[in-house]
Each structure stands twice: as structure tokens, then as C-alpha cells.
Amino acid sequence: MRKLIIEDKWMVFAVTGLANFIATFTTSSINLALPMMAAEFGVSMSTISWVSLIYMLTLSCSLLVFGRLGDLHGYKNLFAGGFVVFSVMSILLPLLSFNLPLLILFRCLQAVGGSMVVSITHAIVSKTFGPKERGKALGINSIFVSLGLAVGPTAGGWLLTYFNWHSLFYVNVPFSLLGIYASLKYMKTRETYTKSPVKMDWLGAVVFGLMIVSLSIAINFVDSWGLVSVRFLGAMTLSLVCLLLFVPIERQRKHPMMELSLFHSKMFSLSILACLCSYIAQMMTTFLMPFFLVNILRMPQNQSGLIMLSTPLIMMLSSPLGGRMTDRIGSRQPAILGLGSVALGCMLMSQLAEGSPVIYILTALALFGCGNGYSVSAINTALYATVPKEHMGVASGMVATVRNIGQSLGVALGGMIIALRTVHYTQIGEIQGKAIYLSAQRDAFYFGVLVAVTAILAIALIPRSPEAASASAE
Predict the structure, then answer these.
(1) How far is the C-alpha of 134 from the C-alpha of 383, rounded, in Å?
(2) Domain ranges of the chain
(3) CATH topology identical between 1-198 and 261-474
(4) Nearest to 188 by CA among 8, 391, 390, 20
């Protein structure tokens, strides 16, 4: 195996942030172009949605694989290679996508490049910075995620106004070239850990990929398929079968793809649960709020976009503060403080009405963004505290996978609760018109509060130190 050697840790920190920015920018900006693409290729919106869905599916099933490959063969080549693949696909996609199948194929290959870099960003940061700086570094690194989410719709809208959807892909190229240069110049590798060759567990990788893909498809299409449809139940059954196969396969492997012993640590397992709940609440709010602003308050798209921008902007400010607080006093207090703010923000959103003033909405979104900024860096710091350095890539890939699954669940559960509760309030006939949707929305945000409280309970159960976590695992 190879060990990462950092010549300039702040340059490497910057390039990992660049990777996170590109990944989130590509995800958040492309949705604006889908109507334009649908018209150009002569397909429906449900069909063109596969341009976004294939990217998320590819990420979900490959992040853990590339995290493991980084542990086995070193991060430098994987990181630089990811930028190469991403930049090449960003050039070829608009040039050679003569039809929709080719567009989806190139989008899938672009996601492979994105997965190669995103899967190991946290691992690189965690290895670069010591325990006294790690929380701050992870907090600042998450700024780039918020920056990509914030800039994506704004810059994407500007590019679509003055150019076309091709520009959304070409704009990635100079950033990718910068990433290639920085990773080759400032990252070195040397042999470490063991001199005996370790093979990749490809059987485990395939089974895990099938499990994640079938789960992701079921989550993304539950709203249109229905909970009792053959397709939804079939996808969930396939995912469950793959899980039941994956665990014994990994236990029998001398060098498994996923080190299941990581879950013996309470700190790691509970941090993963808190991470999942945090992203569910985060994405559900991001998904539901625009519907309220546009459909209930009748705001123009540009004004509602500016209001939604408040959440990632507040996250950008609060993430380094949460990381610095984590370095000083540990993960527990900033994580609980942040998740409590998320729960309070969801509670305020549950009371939204037709006459809700903008300042009330901004306050709720600010609480939500501040809470996410504080909690994400603290949760990640707690998670990596007990991970052995030889499994840091797997842990980083696992966190990225949980993030994607949590975001998909946030959208699916938010849409499903709105649909089911709308039917319920329509049938009882006690309220009419917009009040039906507002009542359903209230219930969805109540669920967000429940999810945030679950994350708080998970953090509260984490042992107070890595040593205590290890003792509890034994």
C-alpha cells in the first residue's frame, strides 16, 4: 500500500475543497438545464430526469469502491485520475451527445470521475491535519460543498441565459486542470502499512453496488410507483437480498472491501446514523421550501432563489466556527447544538402560512443553515476519530455514500409525506385549497424535527472520547 505525503498541506486542502465544489456545482446547476435538454432531444421531463439520476446512482454505488482503492493503491493517482476523467467527460459530453442515450452514458462516466475524487477528500483532509486541527479543516472543507450548492443555480442560470447547456460542462474543465496540477505537484506517495499485495474485493464491490443502486432506484421512484407496487417492492427486495449476501461475503474475505469491524465502534456507528439523519433533514427542507415560496407565496423564481441562498451562505459562515469549536471542546456539544438548531428551524418551518413574512422565513432558514454548519463538521470529526489510517479511504467513501442516500431519502420522504397527507386532508374534507397543502407541509416538517432529534440522540449516546469508544467496542 501507499502512504500520502503532503508537501504543502494547505494547497492539498484547497484542492480537496475544489473537488467538493465541482461535484456539488455540477449536481446543483444541471437541474436548471433539464427543460432545455428535454426540448432539444424531444423527450419528456421524466425521461430527461435520468441525466441527473444516473449521476447520483453512479456516485452512490462507486464511492465506497474508490475509497477502498485509495486505501490499497494510494490517493494521489486516484485523485489526479479522477480530475482527468471528469475533465475529459466534461468536454466529450456536449461534443458527442448526439442523442439521449449517449448523453446519459457520458454523464455516467463523468460521475465516475467525480466519484474518484469525492470519495477520498475527507480521507486526505483527515490524514493531512492532526487531531487539534482536523475539526476546523473538515469544517472549512465543507464550505466548498455549500459554495457549490449556492453558486450552482446562480451561475448555472447566468450561463444558460447567455450561452447554452453545453457551457455547464465546459466550465468544469479549467477547475479540473487546476486540480490535476495541484494534486501532482503537492501530493507524494511512498510504500507503507504492508509489503504484501492486497487484492481488491471485486465480488463484494459488485454486491454492494447492486444493493445501493436498487435501494436508490426504489427511493427515487417511490412517489410515482407507490409503496405497494411490484417495482418498488422488487427493488427493495433486491437491495435486502444483496445486503444479506454482502455481510457474510465481507466476513469471509481476508481483505474485504468494507471493514465491518469499524461498526464495532459506537462512535463510528452512531456518527454514521447521525450523518444520515442530518442529510435527510437537510435535503427535505431544500426540496420542500421552493414549492412553498413559489406555489403558496407566489414569489418569482429569482426572488425565491435568493431566499433559498440564505441557507448555504449561513452554512459557509458557521462550518469553520463549528469545526474550531470541535477542536477545542470535542464533537458532542457542537453536534448537539447544531442539530438542535436544525430541529428548531424545522419547527419554525412547520408553522409557515400564506401570510408568513420574509423575515420569519429567513430566520428559519438561517437557523437551519447554521445548525447544519455546526453539526456536519462535528459529526465528521467524531466519525474519523476512531478510524485506523489504513481504512480512512473506506470511511470517506462510506460518508459520501451515506450523504447521497440521505439526500435521496430526504427528497423521497418529503414528497411521499406531502402526497399521503394531502390525500388524507382532502378525504376528511375539513379544510380546502392551500390549507390542505400547508397542513401536509406541516406534517413533513414535523417529520424533519423527528429526524433531527434522532440524530441528537445518536450523538448523545456516543462515548465521550475515542478511548471510551474503543473500550465500549471491546
Answers:
(1) 12
(2) 1-198, 201-256, 261-474
(3) yes
(4) 8
Strand partners, 5: 188
CATH for the 261-474 domain, from 1.10.10.10, 1.20.1250.20, 3.40.50.300, 2.40.110.10: 1.20.1250.20
Taking alpha carbons only, the member of 179, 17, 118 closest to residue 396 is 118
Which of these, 320, 317, 321, 308, lies nearest to 282 by C-alpha position? 308
The pLDDT tens digits for 104-159 are 999 999 999 999 988 888 778 777 777 677 666 776 676 777 678 767 777 887 88
Q: How many CB atoms lie within 10 A of CB 455?
A: 30
What backbone torsions phi and psi does residue 44 show, to the nearest 5 degrees? -80, 165
What's the CA gap between 376 and 24, in Å, rounded?
A: 16
Q: What is the pLDDT of residues 284-342, one digit of tens each?
A: 887 788 888 878 888 876 677 788 888 888 887 888 888 788 888 888 889 999 999 99
CATH class of 1-198: mainly alpha
- Is pTM beyond 0.85? Reply is no
